[in-house]
Amino acid sequence: MVDSTPDSGFATRLKAIRERIDLAARSAGRNPVDIRLLPVTKTVESARLREAVAAGCRRLGENKVQEAARKHHELSDLDIEWAVIGHLQTNKARNVAAFATEFQALDSLRLAEALDRRLQAAGRGMVVLVQVNTSGEASKSGVAPGETLDLLRALRPFSSLRVNGLMTLAARSEDEESVRRCFRLLRELRDRGRDESLVGDGELSMGMSGDFEAAVEEGATCVRIGTALFGVRALPTK
Fold this sequence. Notes:
This protein is an alpha/beta fold.
């Protein structure tokens, strides 16, 4: 059961998640050091994030750029980096370019152009992952699997964007095989991208609190964990 009590034993939960990642990796014949855990801080207030940083987390993931920018300011005294992992409108590219180290939801050439322009103006570079809609669900963002390689090829001219791999959200399903199919498809696309040197280190960001062990077994190099670390998110008040 996920502990939803604020600031209660974060380091203990972090240790438990890392042990589960290690076990899943070893069961698949992988080295656990090849998988990074990205804490997802959606709706978690900055005061609680200081506990995460004290426990050793140095890069935090945030879905919404406005929330990430606010927390970046509130925690500016800490040595941490921010990864924006949610859908981004082109008119918010400037906000991301101002502070984020990593962007995991690149899904169009138009957005790439906007980000590159803003990063060039700021004299910065950024690691980006292309988001792929492996489930085909209309509710999810991401480029279609069949268009992924074309987008990766089109990103080559953007010198401020370091394209380093792919990201996906698996199918919303209780059927583990349906979930694993999404992970395997992303891995296959990554491998094809590697053949053309399109994906840098070949990062695979896939797997969240409910399915990260299956993702690790299918090749994830980054798992995005929110609820299992910080507890169930509070519902907005009416």
